Amino acid sequence: MTRRDRGKVICVGGGRYRGRTSSPKNSTAAPTHQPCGRQTEGFRDPARSVPKGGSPPTPLKAAPATKYVGIDVSKKSLDVASGDLRLTLPNTRAGCLELLRKTTWPCVQYVCEATGSFTKTLVAVMHAKRRPISVVPGHRVRHFAQASGRLAKNDRIDAEVIATFGAALTPKAISRPAKGTERLRSLVRRRRSLIDVETSQRAQWNADGDAILQTTSHAMIRAIHAQIEVIDESIEKLFDVCPDLAAKRRAMESVRGVGVVTAIYVLAELPEIGGMDRKQVASMCGLAPWDRESGDIVGIRRIFGGRRHLRTALFMAASVAARCNTILRRFYSRLRKRGKPRKVALTAVMRKLVIHLNHVARRAMEQGTGASAIVPLKGSTDPRKRRRVLKHRRRLP
Fold this sequence. Notes:
Elements: E1 9-12, E2 15-18, E3 67-73, E4 77-82, E5 85-90, H1 93-102, E6 108-113, H2 120-128, E7 133-136, H3 138-147, H4 155-169, H5 181-207, H6 211-241, H7 243-253, H8 260-269, H9 278-284, E8 293-294, E9 297-298, H10 308-324, H11 326-337, H12 342-367
Parallel strand pairs: 3-6, 6-7
Antiparallel strand pairs: 1-2, 3-4, 4-5, 8-9
Helix pairs in contact: 5-6, 5-8, 7-8, 7-12, 8-10, 9-12, 10-11, 10-12, 11-12
């Protein structure tokens, strides 16, 4: 070996280091590594050479390409499109099972638009059969169709566009929700709708001067108030049988400024909390400031998107935390001294608060969510006395 050969770069196991090259005469077996880049002196590529008396190496089989199935979901039917396949099936459990029998490819992923309660049956069947399914916002698919030049719109065309959208952008499959999450979301949304109706009835009761109208409004308010109390009891019973949700709720309520309603609304509208990083959770809540710049123009960053009802609950919690939470109060005062408007400073407090809630929820998941996660107060044997109970606090007129 000459002095010039000592400084050559040798590739072993996919890495590079400087050292001495080995002579092929002294080696007893052919190297089993794959050289990276240009082949160096003294090394042979086993994939390009065939040993004497042997057969060429068997090439590795490529993984089958994922086939995306677009599904346009309506109240009564499912329009399916994938390649040359076109189907129209009923939006029932039997129709979803027939869809699985018609799409028996090795690697398949289903894509549909978010259409509220119409997709519940489809998503439940796919999760039960362990099939990946992606639920994407409808405006993204519509903008994709317009960008592709497809201006016509019907159920069959929408299914084709959804399949093309999935193949082009490969959306991530949604995970199976935790136990009790779907029921908690339904109860919370029903509670919110009842509160909206109660608010409108209270406004009419205050505005009406007729005694008969006030009597009917008063009776309706009492009936709505009784329904809200029933839902509150159902929510509390749900936390008794779901220790995972109860552990997250207790961890969130330990943050100063976060009450019972905020913790329950966050768990219902953001079931992914605890499994995301800080940027993802801020974007999911619609609290991430987005750039608006082009060339020399530097616009004002604004928040948009995300889950609107979740922001409503976080705004009330941030308003309280900006006064009573020591860390967030200092943060809010610092932003106000820098000249930030009140709403801008409160939005920054909301973002910092939900990031901290995501952290405490992750820590609750890591510490364990069994029966030991809900420990009663000292001297008490009832776990319910350990936590605050959800209660509708509006007084009857």
